[in-house]
Each structure stands twice: as C-alpha cells, then as structure tokens.
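Supplementary Methods. Inverse-folding protocol.

Structures were first reduced to a discrete structure-token string of length 454. This string, shown here, constituted the complete conditioning input.
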C-alpha cells in the first residue's frame, strides 16, 4: 500500500515536470518522437547533410578553376630580366631612366592579370574622351590597364598621334603598380647651350616640383654630383642650383634641371605663370637659375622630392635697363646693407611706387670719403647714376678689390638691389659677391669675355 502511494506520487511529479516544457522540446530532449502530432520533430536525414557538403565542394572547385583560368590568360611579355632600356633615336626619345606611372589601375581589370616583372604596354589615344581630349589609355593585351597621367598626356599626345594613335612601350609591373617608359616623349634641350641667369629680385616663395617619379635617375645623379649617398632613412641637400628650361614643344612644360639632368617639371599653375618670362630668357640663350632643396630615400624604388625657391615673375628681369657701357653682373651670394641712404630719400622713396618693396639696379664704384682725420676708401652705391649710399667699412673691405678689378677691365660692376619701407623711410640693401667668393674662372669669363646676357 505504501509503495503504491509513492509510485503514484512520483508519476504525478514527472507529469508536472514533463508538462512544464513544450511537448516537442521535451520529446526531443528524451530522444523520442514528439507527442505533438501537428509539429513532430525528427532528426535531419543523412542525405541533407551530404547535399550541403557536395555544394561546398563544388564552390571550392569553381573558385580554384577560376583562379587557374586567370593564370593561363597572361598577356605577351618582354623577355624576363631587368627593366628594358629604350633605344634613343632621331625622334628624341626619352632617356632609358625616365619611367612614368599608369594611374587608375584599380578601376580596370588588366592589373589582375599582370605578374611582377617586365611587360609590354600599348598606349592608345582617346581623342573623344569627354573628360580629357588628350587622354592616353594604357592596355595590356586586350585588357584596359589605366591612363597616362593627365599632364604627361598633354605633352605625349602629339607624339602618339603622329605614330597613328597607338604605340607599344616597355613597362614594368611591381606589386600592383605599372610604370612605362614614354618612348618618343620630347626631352629638354641641351642645358649647356643656355646661360644660367639669377632673378634680379629676391622675393621668393616655395614650390614643390612635379614629375619626380619619372626622373629618379636625375635625382640620384644630383646626389652623386654632391658626393652624398642616398640612404634608406633619407637624405637632403639644400641650396642646389637648378635651371628652369622650357620644353619647346608647345605643351607649356618647364623642366627642372639639376647637374645637367631633368629631375621634374613645374606644376601647371606655376608653368603658366612663368612661361612668358622663361621663354623670353630662352630666346636670349639664357635659363632662369633658382635655388633647390632635394630630398631622397632609397627603398625598393628611389623616392625623391624637389622644392624650389621661385622669384616673383615681375622680378626676374631688371626693373630698368642695365648700363649702356660695358658691365658685369656680380654674383648675388651675400647680402649687404647700404649705409647713408637716409640722406638720399628723395631718390629712393619714389622708386617704391607705393609698394612695400621694390627691386633696383645698383652699380658699385670705388670712392674716397673724407673722414675727420683721414681719407677712407669705400664702395659707393649708385642708383640711376646718382649716389644712394655707401657700403660699411667692413663690407667695403670685402668687395673693394673686386670692384677695382671691374673698373680696371673697363666694366661697371652691377649688383642686385632692393628697397623696403614707405614714403617716410626707405632702407637699401644689395646682393653681391665678396672678392674671395669668386673664382679665377669667373674672373676670366666676366672681365675678359663678353658681357653676360641680361
């Protein structure tokens, strides 16, 4: 009797616990078919698992075959090895170290099919391109790779047009980027035929050069000429003479030349600003010489940056005609303050023309000034043939021998001058060379040769 009561009580407890869960969940936990006939739960059949496995295998196989097919469709390539050299012909082809990048490769498919190493690239003109009539597309085989940079395309388009609209050039692919050698791209005229000319004024502003990426060899040779090795950490040289040379092909490009090699070109805005003055200098056999700062770092590729100190365009030429008699322009290597200019404000103040500064042409002459107990030999500074002041005793001592050498050779010593101030007070400074700063070669050319171009 007692056992029957316990057994009945146990059955009621299990019944309550069993009812606390949904019938299908409870049945599934006990491994029995659900007692809910409307929503029975059954273990998944074996064939469903097999179907999913086969689908996964099929996807993997398709991906592998796709990758294999891509690798089988490689374009024709140049023989393996280092970057190919470009033959220099009568067309004035670009030097073999001039490489330019193809841009926009991520938007086209050819880069996915290109292995690292040499590759032949076809450059094709797109005169109907709505964004740029000078556009040049780049192709590998029958797949679009990208475009030649816009500014380079403006200079390169006439060359490709004259070749029928398409040229094949050597290229080099490296980690998803492609450089090409611009065969036929006009090079700068020989620099040795142009006389370097420093701007008359010295109001300067900084300008970063474009196109260093396609003139790495020129940057490397500039460091070699200075005797400074390029390291992985990066090195810099300052105050390097650079010439601005117009290309002369109608493209409006102005190349930057250091140590006889092109290292880049002026940005578009600066090229337009300086084009007239630089073309005028070239017509007279001269090239504007400015100061440059070069930075370079040696990695997988040589990376460089060139920054110029450009004068104001209106201060490139002298503000007034140079002396009619034979003259020599002294190198503008040192800045010297003119003393006694306060006694000549009536001459200097009108030359400002209401501006805070102005450039002037100064001539230097040896003179004797009466002191309290002696006569001092100094350098007299004249503007428009009138006395405008004197160099200090120290500055006069540093330059008097050079001025006398010019006078002995029958030439007027000319220096770059600048005025700063207002209608009440004007200060006067010149830039010239100390006697010890000039070389015998300069003296021979300046004092016994022909007068340098203005």
């Amino acid at each position: 009797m007692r056992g029957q009561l316990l057994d009945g009580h146990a059955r009621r407890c299990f019944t309550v616990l069993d009812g606390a869960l949904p019938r299908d969940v409870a049945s599934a936990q006990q491994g029995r078919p659900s007692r809910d006939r409307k929503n029975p739960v059954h273990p998944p059949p074996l064939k469903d698992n097999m179907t999913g496995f086969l689908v996964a295998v099929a996807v993997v196989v398709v991906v592998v075959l796709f990758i294999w097919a891509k690798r089988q469709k490689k374009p024709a390539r140049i023989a393996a090895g280092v970057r190919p050299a470009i033959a220099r012909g009568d067309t004035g082809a670009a030097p073999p170290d001039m490489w330019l990048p193809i841009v926009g490769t991520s938007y086209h498919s050819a880069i996915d099919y290109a292995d690292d190493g040499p590759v032949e690239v076809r450059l094709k003109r797109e005169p109907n391109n709505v964004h740029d009539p000078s556009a040049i597309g780049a192709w590998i085989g029958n797949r679009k790779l990208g475009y030649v940079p816009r500014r380079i395309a403006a200079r390169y388009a006439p060359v490709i047009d004259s070749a029928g609209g398409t040229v094949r050039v050597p290229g080099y692919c490296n980690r998803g980027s492609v450089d090409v050698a611009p065969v036929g791209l006009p090079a700068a005229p020989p620099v040795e035929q142009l006389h370097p000319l420093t701007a008359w004024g010295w109001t300067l502003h900084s300008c970063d050069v474009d196109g260093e990426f396609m003139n790495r060899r020129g940057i490397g040779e500039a460091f070699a000429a200075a005797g400074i090795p390029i390291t992985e950490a990066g090195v810099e040289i300052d105050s390097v003479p650079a010439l601005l040379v117009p290309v002369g092909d109608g493209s409006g490009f102005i190349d930057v030349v250091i140590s006889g090699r092109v290292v880049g070109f002026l940005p578009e805005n600066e090229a337009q600003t300086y084009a007239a003055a630089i073309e005028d200098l070239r017509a007279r056999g001269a090239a504007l010489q400015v100061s440059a700062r070069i930075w370079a770092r040696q990695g997988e590729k040589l990376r460089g940056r060139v920054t110029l100190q450009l004068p104001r365009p209106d201060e490139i030429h002298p503000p007034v005609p140079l002396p009619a008699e034979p003259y020599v322009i002294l190198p503008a290597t040192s800045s010297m303050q003119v003393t006694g200019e306060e006694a000549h404000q009536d001459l200097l103040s009108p030359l400002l023309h209401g501006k805070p500064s102005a450039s002037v042409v100064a001539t230097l002459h040896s003179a004797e000034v009466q002191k309290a107990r002696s006569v001092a030999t100094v350098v007299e500074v004249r503007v428009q043939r009138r006395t405008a002041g004197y160099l200090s005793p120290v500055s006069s001592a540093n330059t008097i021998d050079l001025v006398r050498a010019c006078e002995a050779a029958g030439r007027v010593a000319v220096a770059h001058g600048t005025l700063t101030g207002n209608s009440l007070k004007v200060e006067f400074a010149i830039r010239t060379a100390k006697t010890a700063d000039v070389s015998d070669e300069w003296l021979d050319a300046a004092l016994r040769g022909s007068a340098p171009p203005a």
